[in-house]
Amino acid sequence: MLTPIRLRIEGFRGFREAVDFTFDKPVTQLFGENRSGKSSTLNAIEWVLFGDDCCGKQTGIRERVGWTVDNRHMESPVVCVELEMALAAGNCLIRRSMRRRPKKTALESSLQVTFPDGATISGSEAEHRLGGLLRSSFRDFLTTVYQHQESIRAIVTQEPKDRNDAIDRLLGLTDQRNILDALDAAKLAQRQKQVGDRFGNFGQQIQTALNQRQNDVVEARQQAKNAGIATNQLTLKEALERAKAVADAIKEFAASAELKTPDVNIPADMTGLVMFDKAAKTAINGMRGKVPGTAEQTKLVTYHRDLSTLVTELEGAQNDRTALENSVLALEKEHGAQKAILVEIPLISAELELEQSRLRQTNGQAAVIKEAIAFLEKNLEAPCPVCGTMVPDLLETIRRLWTDKLAILVNESVGKINALRIRINSLREVAEQFETLSNKAIKQDIEWTNQRDRVAILLNCKLAVDDAPRALVEVERARIKERLNELEEAIRERHKRLDDIEKACNDLSLIRDYLRHEAKTAVLGEIEKSASFKQLESLRDQIAKLVEDSSQIKTAVAELSREEGEAKLAAAEQLIDDYFRQLSGNPAVQCLKLAITTDKRTNRNSYDISDQDGKDLTPILSQGDLNALALAIFLGLATAGKETGTLGFLILDDPSQSLGTEHKKRLAKLLDRVSQYKKLVIATMDAEFYEHLLATLTKEKTSYRFGLWTPAKGPSISRGPK
Amino acid sequence: MLITTYNCLINLHHRHGPREFGKICQKMLAISYHRAGFGHVVERGVQGVDLDAANGEIKYTTEVKTTISDSISFEEKDAAGLAARHADGYHRLLAVLQLKPLSDWLIVDAEYLEPGRLHLDTLRPYRRNELETQLRTLFAAVVDEHGESSLTGAQAYLDKVLFRLGVEQQDR
């Protein structure tokens, strides 16, 4: 068993200059107020033994988060903690130090261990050997040696899982628990499930692909059936034979059409079929464009169209000419010949002239008569104004002359003149119409001549004067039409042959598609035969074996842990019960029972803490009782007949927290009992408890009093109870 | 499993439902045992272990399960039935057919199996690889031969086949 003898602390946390502590007596007491350095003294023991393991979040201790080891009030701290420990074989010295190298910001730590035989090792080997010597992790140290307040709480106040964990560690069942934790952490079953799920997903993908491909096969088969291809013809052999037939047909057609033979290789396998399909269709399309007669047909179609256009124009022109002639005839019929009209117009003009002259003359006479009448009306008795003769009733006579003769002559003349004017206007109008028609006729003649020329050019011949252009064009058009029909027939026949070849090619494509889909479906079936799949299967088997083995290991380890725990509890049960009753003095508890079972779900030990009637005690205990319970378990196991670790000492940091006066007294008495078995290092700020310890502990003691701590000087420590 | 075998089984499952499908597979497995050279094959419909197959010294008693999921229910009565046959000198087996792509028969030692819901992966460590490979191949051939007729005839058809082969059928 390892027990501390001497401790030297320098530069560690609140410490500046080196300070020595001796643990040569069975009990060492550290007494002082908060922040005086007591806990740092205990922490120094932790640090020298466990290094960085006692720092940070990993420790599970809240105050260790962001914890610093070196004295932050020193400029260039050199941290050094030495712990001399007694072994069965002699003493060993553990020295851990930390310093800041020049020009570096981080602190470098180093460990040196000197063994009883004088051998000194350092570095990682020292860490390894020290670990072997201690046989305790820091977490175990916290619960089996160093009774930290957080550990006390973990035993009774937290989740059953944490309590069970803490008691397991107290019982030295850490290794088993760690094995179980490690096996759980590996989550082998979960990973196995993940692999299985992924395999399942892969299988689903295969299923989906299979369904799709089988649908494609069915569809391809149906399409082939619709094209008249029987199911038993959906073979590679059939496809290759058909390909050969298509190739032969293409060559035959090319020969018959006097075309260059296309380059189409007869396929020998599935790959060849794919290429053949493309080549054949290209060849067929190429030959379509070059079918004999096609060029001539195109040319003749254009020619025929031109002839048709010309016929329409000729027809139009002819109709116009006819219409014009009819118009002329109609005009002549209504008005007479143009010549006659042209002759009549000057005659009518002359007559009109004459009549207008007569009218002028008559008007002259009429003017004289009117004058005479006006004169005579004014001068009734006057002689004739013309001859100067006295004529009886001259006025009357003249008036009668005017009304009976002249007026009639004037009216007649005016009437004639009007009629002549109307006539001449009419004739002129008709003459104009004749003129217009005549001009039209001239234009038509010119156009007709042009059309005749076009006919001659189109027909490439000379037209005689009496040749009927339209008839000539009609004849030519009929001839061309006939030729076109011949060509169309021939071309249609060739295209039909090509259509047949193309159909055969399409049928071949359907067979090929079917075979392709079938091959794709078959590929899925090959997956299981592949080496990769077999390897995967083998790996799955291995995983299953590993999971099974780990399950069996867990069961075995759990059983071992429980058995060992039972044995240790059996040894300590009485003491624990004793200590608890001694500490708590709770009259309701006559017997404390600690039972261990295995939680089937987690394979971990589960501890039931019950009273004499089997009822769970934890709900009815006060805080002091709970602390007492925790202390009882800790101390009971620590002092039980079977040793649970290699460290022969206990560190208690403020164990009297939450204890009343009576509890403190009892604790002091209890610790006296414990000191018979283990070296004790007790730190307290509780003056009352300290006095109880001084008064109660029967073993020899070393006391250190911690006074005021200052940054400049560090803790102020004096040895001695007062 | 061959695609063709799988397709046929899927059709059987769709046509007849899971219960009948299980029985059909049991009978086809019995035929497979017969073709594997086991001279004495017993197929049971209701009471007792599903299949016994014996060939001189080698004697197997097999509980047959089919599933489309990832687990099977291994019941107390199954374990008890196998234990009873084990007392008669039979080696206890569990045959599981998972009807999924890439899956096939698992033939496993049932000696250490506890009753309950068993995930198929947990059976893998107990596989009888040689027997499994043999039966898988034979089963595929049986499906190929009798699958179509089983679609229409179901168990009744296979009963006739078993009768012709001389396979003893109990609990009819």
3D architecture notes:
The complex is a heterodimer of chains A (about 725) and B (about 170). Chain A is of the alpha/beta class and about 725 residues long. Chain A has 17 helices and 14 strands. Chain A has helices spanning about 40-50, 125-135, 140-145, 150-155, 160-170, 175-185, 190-225, 235-255, 270-290, 295-335, 340-380, 395-460, 470-525, 530-585, 625-640, 660-675, 685-695, and strands at about 5-10, 20, 25-30, 80-85, 90-100, 105-115, 120, 145, 595-600, 605-610, 650-655, 680-685, 700-705, 715-720. In chain A, strand 11, helix 16 and strand 12 form a beta-alpha-beta unit. The longest helix of chain A is centred in the middle third of the chain and has 66 residues, at about 395-460. Chain A is elongated. The model of chain A has no long low-confidence stretch (mean pLDDT about 90). With about 170 residues, chain B is α/β, with parallel strands linked by helices. Chain B has a single domain (about 5-170), classed as 3-Layer(aba) Sandwich (Trna Endonuclease, Chain: A, domain 1). Chain B contains 4 helices and 8 strands. Chain B has helices at about 5-35, 75-85, 120-125, 130-165, and strands spanning about 40-45, 50-55, 60-65, 70-75, 90-100, 105-110, 115-120, 170. Chain B has a 6-stranded mixed beta sheet with strand order 6-5-3-2-1-8. Chain B has a two-stranded antiparallel sheet with strand order 4-7. In chain B, strand 2 and strand 3 (about 60-65) form a beta hairpin. Chain B is globular. The interface of A and B includes residues 193, 202, 206 and 525 of A.
